[in-house]
Structure formats: C-alpha cells, structure tokens
Amino acid sequence: MDLKQEGVAEVARVEDARLDDPTRSDMEYDKTLSAEMINQDHMELYLEAIQRYPNDEAIDMEEEKRLKRKLDIRLIPLLGICYFFYYVDKTTLSYAAIFGIKKDLNLQGTDYSWLSSIFYFGWLAWAIPSNLIMQRLPPAYYLAGNIFMWGALLMCEAASKNFATLAALRVLSGAFEAIADPAFMLVVSTYYTREEQPWRIAGYYLWNGIGVAGGGLIGYGIGHVKGALESWRYEFIIVGAVCAAWGIVLALLLPNSPTNFWGFSHDEKLMMIARIRKNQTGIENRRINWDQIKEAYLDYKTWIYFLLGVVSNIPNGGISNFSTLVIQGLGFDTLHTTLLGIPQGVIVVIWIVLGAVCNQYLPKNSRTLVAAIFMLPTIAGGLGFLLAPKDAYVGRLICFYLTGSYQASFVVSLSIITSNTAGQSKKMIVSGMIWFGVCVGNIASPFFYKSNQAPTYRLGIGSLLVANCIELLIFVLLRYVYIWENRGKEREREVLRERGEMDAFTQNATAFRDMTDKQNPNFVYVY
C-alpha cells in the first residue's frame, strides 16, 4: 500500500472510530488524524505546531517577520563563512600554482590538471553515501566534523614532497567536502519557505565571491612571506588551520533541528515548524526510505539536475583552478595577478545579488527565466575573450570578469531544485546527484585548458561557451517540465475530489508525512 492509499485508509479508520464513540469531540478526532499523518522525528512538537497554527492564516505576520530576521541572523552568516572557506579551500591550488608549486614538486605535463580534477574523484565516490549518512546523523555535527577535516587535510598538503602525496590528500579532501552543498541546501529547506529560499541561498552563496576576493588578499599577503618554507606551503597551513578552527565553532552554533535550536523559545519553535507546512516537503526524518531512493533514481528530473550540475561546472572547474593563470597570461606579474582576483570576486557577489533581486521582484514563477537571462553575460564574455585582439588586455580582462554571471544562474537553479523535491531520503539523493554532476563537470573542465594554449586557453574558453549554451537550454526545458507536471497534479486532485478522497490530503495531513513530490497531490512545482 503506497502513501496515498495509506492516507485514505487512515481517514476512513478515524471516521469509523468517530461513529463508534460519539462522545469524543471533533477536536480529539482531528488530533488523532493529525498524529497519524505526521512522519517526522519529534512528532509531539510537530503535532503541537499544527494544532497551535491549524492554517497559515493563524500565523501572525509581524511575529513571523521577527522570527525570519532572527533565523537570518543566526543561520545565513554561519553558512556564508562556511562557503568562504569552502571556496578558498578549493582555490588554494590555483594560488599555489603562481607561487611555484609546479616547480617545487616537479609537476610535468598534465600533472597540475590532474591535481585539479582528482579532488573531485574523492567527492564523486563519497557524494551519495555521505548524504545518506547525514540523514542518519545530526546534520550540523556531521557537517562541522567534515569541515574540521577539510582544514586538517589542507594543512597536511603543505608537507607534500611530490605529486603522489598531494594527489592522495586531495582525493581525501574531496571526499570530506562532498557533504557541504547538500548540507547547506538542507538547512535552507528546513527553516525557510520555498518563496524565501532563493534569497537565502544567494545570501550564503555570495560568500563564494567573497572567497574569490579573499583568496586574492590571502594570496597577496602570503606572496610577501619570506620564511623557511616556500610561500605556497604557508598558504596551505594558514588557510587549513583557520578552516579547522571554524569547524569547531560551527559545531557549537549550527542547529541540528528546529526542535533543539538554542536561543529560540518554545513558541518560536512551533511557528518555525508550522510556517514550513506550505512547502509540503517535510523537515526531518532520520530513517532511510529505500522506496524514495528508488523513486529518486527513476525520476527523469533527477537526471536533468545531474546534467545541469555537469554543464554548470565545466566553466567553474576551469575558472576556479585556471583563473589566476589566465589573468597572469594577460601580462600581469604574480602579485598583481592575485590582486586582480579581488574585483573578480566582487563582481561575482554583484551578479548573485542581482539574480536574487530580479527573482524577488519579477512575477511569481520567474526563476527559470531569471536563470536563463543571467547566462547571457557569461556567453557574451566568453565570446569577447575569444574574439578580442591578443593585445586588448583590459578588454579581455573585462570579458573574463563577465563570465562570472553564471554564478547567479546556478544559485537560482539550486533554489529550484530545493523547492521542487520532497521526501527526506529523496531529497538526499537528488541533492547528491546534482553535486555528483558538479564533480563530473569539475573533473572534465581542467583538461580543456591545455598548457600549450596558454595564455589564451581557447579550448577552455570554448568549452565554457558550449556548456553555458546547454545550461541555458536546460532552464528553458525545466520551465516547461514543471508546467506539465503541475497540470498532471491538478488532474490528480480533481480525480481525488470526484472520489471524495481529498479529505485524506489536507495541507496538514501531507505537510509532515514524508511524502515525495510525486506522491503528494498537494505538491505544486515552482518554476
């Protein structure tokens, strides 16, 4: 019996009990029905939340605004700082390249490209298992432990004497970083409504740009270090130590669940839970549901998300690891190359904020349109970089900066995926699969940047262009996919109404039942 049949059966059972015992009040029967429909950890608190706030209108708007501000202050900076370290950690190799790591470790041929890519082999192997482990464990502690290990392994990389040692450490680093983005997406979907998620994802993702700029500042500072070790080794040690320390701080500050979020009153926790009802995606369930895992892999949308992850990160893999070499190839010395990473990061922040603003103020269901529109500057920048004269250094640098607009599109795409996937185990797999695609794109990307094509890297910039065009088409495809799926949902609800079975599927009955987006007739896709 699937969840839809179970829902109808539960309503029928409770209605029969009502007839058998007419002395019990309607409120007592509603409580029984609600309890049967909740499939979440800490069921009692969820039940109290929907009894206190039986519908969205029962939530006071001013109190909700205060709660959202408090959540923003407590959550988004934590995720943002994580993302700062997340990006700086991944770009340390890029800055090490201009500070002599190739010469010091005698890297030959495609060795540097392999070091860029091999990081993602560890990520690739551990992405799905790590997501399922996170479902079973307190997610904040699991994320914090992984971040601590990022830093520890980065410090170990400073001791590398050859390609093999550094490659092995980067594989392990990739495995520990595999949980980061899925964990961030889980936090946002747990505490924010679908309408609020794009801004919050943008709020932490823009620290990606701050990481680009911060990497430039760190690189510039380390470039002046004159010590017993090579300067690139100091970069690994310093960044790794601070990152590991942040992992400890995160374990103390990030909540594992709305039910144990310290600093919030009992009433605030009830509102925190009740207002997420409209998402119809559930919040927390630490039992792995293998039927949901099967559905995730059989859902064609999962594979569209996977492809989106691939094509959106073919540009990213090259830019992350070769941006300094591309800029240096325009005629700038080492220290000025690191400084020119700062405006690159600032521009990324501006792109992400612009994407969030457009999504906020355009009509409802404009996310796919916003994502598609912000692919256009990236495509224009790539074309300009390829076609501009070789001596047009400033023009080509501006074109290279324009390529960062795809970051805004990717942020919006994350909110699309987070908002359109329900069922806890299915969410774990789907979020894992997009980042699985991210790995594939990042593994392939560095090999498009041939050393014999430096400094123009025509094949690398060409791969960026092709990937961007495919990504734009995927956003158009997703828009029509969601419209088509919603029409099917409406037909499904009409059939249930004709059968008189819609009583089994009220908003309260389905919100916390851990139903997937496919199973839940109340689920409406946003696009």
UniProtKB/TrEMBL annotation:
Q: How does it sit in the membrane?
A: Multi-pass membrane protein
What keywords does the record list, in alphabetical order?
Membrane, Transmembrane, Transmembrane helix, Transport
Xref: PROSITE patterns: MFS
Q: Which SUPFAM superfamilies does this UniProt record tie to the protein?
A: MFS general substrate transporter (SSF103473)
Q: Where in the cell is it found?
A: Membrane
Gene Ontology cellular component terms for the protein in this record:
membrane
Q: What is this protein called?
A: Major facilitator superfamily (MFS) profile domain-containing protein
UniProt organism field: Talaromyces pinophilus (Penicillium pinophilum)
